[in-house]
Amino acid sequence: MLTIAEMNANPHTTLARWRKEAPVVDYEGGGVFVLGHEDVVSLSLDPRVVATGTALPESRGITSGALHDIFKLGMLTANGSEHQGRRSIVSRALASVLIGDVRRNVRSVTENLIDVAYEGGSAEFVSHFANQIPILTLAGVFGVEEPDRQGFVNRVEELGRFFAPSSTDADIAISFAAAEYLRDYFEFRFRKITESKKSDFLSAIRVEAEAERLAPTEIVFQIIQMILGGTESVRASLSAQISLLLQHRNQWHSLYADTSLVPAAVSEALRYEPGIAGLVRATAEPVELHGATLPANSLVILSTLSALRDERVFKRPNVFDIHRDDLPRLHLVFGAGAHRCVADHFARAELEEALSVFVTRLPNLKLEDIPIFNGHVFIRTPSSFCVSWSRN
Ligand code: HEM
User: Fold this and answer.
1) Helix (H, G, I), strand (E, B) or coil at 288
2) Alpha carbon of 17 to ligand 1 centroid (Å)
3) Does residue 278 have its Cβ closer than 6 Å to ligand 1?
4) What is the distance in A from the centroid of ligand 1 to the CA of 231?
5) Cys-Cys link to 317, which of 223, 226, 309, 313 (CB 3.0-4.6 A)?
6) Phi, psi (deg, nearest 5) at residue 333
């Protein structure tokens, strides 16, 4: 049995030990962990292994309201044609977002955050940079204007508490209120679009949704799922890439000397310390895997955290190496199959742009302490850590 305590203490060593023993292991928190890269990919594509609908909020006593509707009406937790309809409007509307604009926006957000902290010579990385960059980037895409910005930033942070590995009942109540606020805010914004007919992401998604006959409330929950998908994961990934590169100073110097290495550095950090630990699924019918049977209706965690260090796929998997040449073309950190991240290009643009701003503006950036990444089922949360720089 894979225990929560050993996973909290040392997830990578624990998973490596289990990978040697078996392809699947029972998990103390419920269900099983699937450990190998090939099995994680093949079960992601298997129609008998399905998204979990409203099971998660209901297991925590939430049976109605906006927090419940995120799961009831959002794409990530839906299956079949319902999932496809919701996803296709988001992916078509995202195609209308110019990635060059996203990059410019991330660059300016990151530059501004550096400017604010610069004279102080140091900052706590997670709260000052990693929290803010993804939320402010999404605020730009969704056209959240200045007077609404701080409220938006606060509510997005509060919403994320429900998904944190150690969330309490008080966190859930705060998340619940934040979900209602965001639903009402975007419903209001949609009503305004009809009046002003602006051309932006929200207008694009509205046009797509009308073509698919999706109700406005349903569109709002796709946007809230984009917010959820696009904040916690990016926050952890920004923290991972900076802290890993600063721990491997020679690789940080290589980046400074040659910024064309930035995309490879981002990919390797996503592999080594992924922002999402796994894909949570349920079996709709019994599934046979290497001679073992996963019974129907059991919880299955397809552990990308384990798969991304699978020694059958990666040479020296426990070595952080931005020069490695064995990353599969489709990076498993973004999942696989029908639910594969709908915004992977967007996420990469964010991570790459932010990293290149740091390495060029603050080449002498120093890591003051090493973060720990908590969470081994779904979202991973970095602990606070400080970075410092000398002013030239
Ligand atoms: C480093 C950053 C990111 C990582 C590691 C990541 C990872 C993932 C993964 C693993 C999935 C599949 C989950 C599953 O199958 O259960 C997923 C889905 C999704 N992601 Fe991302 N993601 C990132 C950034 C983003 C961003 C920036 C957005 C939005 C702007 C986003 C929006 C979504 C949405 C809406 C889904 C659901 C797709 C569906 O169900 O069809 N993600 N992401």
Assistant:
1) strand
2) 28
3) no
4) 10
5) 309
6) -60, -25
- Please name which of 313, 294, 301 lies closest in space to residue 379, comparing C-alpha atoms: 301
Domain range for 85 is 4-388
Please count the structural domains in the chain. Answer: 1
Which of the listed residues 231, 341, 342, 379 should we mutate to test ligand 1's pocket, taking the one with most ligand atoms within 8 A of CB? 341
Establish how many alpha carbons lie within 13 A of residue 257's alpha carbon, considering only the half-sphere containing its beta carbon. Answer: 6
Probe residue for ligand 1, chosen from 233, 273, 308, 380 as the CB with the greatest number of ligand atoms within 8 Å: 233
- pLDDT per residue, tens digit, the chain (392 aa), is 999 999 999 999 999 999 999 999 999 999 999 999 999 999 999 999 999 999 989 988 899 999 999 999 999 999 999 999 999 999 999 988 889 999 999 999 999 999 999 999 999 999 999 999 999 999 999 999 989 999 999 999 999 988 877 789 999 999 999 999 999 999 999 888 765 555 688 888 988 888 888 888 899 999 999 999 999 999 999 999 999 999 999 999 999 999 999 999 999 999 999 999 999 999 999 999 999 899 999 999 999 999 999 999 999 999 999 999 999 889 999 999 999 999 999 999 999 999 999 999 999 999 999 999 999 999 999 999 999 999 87
Cα separation, 267 vs 250, in Å, equals: 17
> How far apart are alpha carbons 186 and 168 in whole angstroms?
27
Tell me 126's DSSP state. I
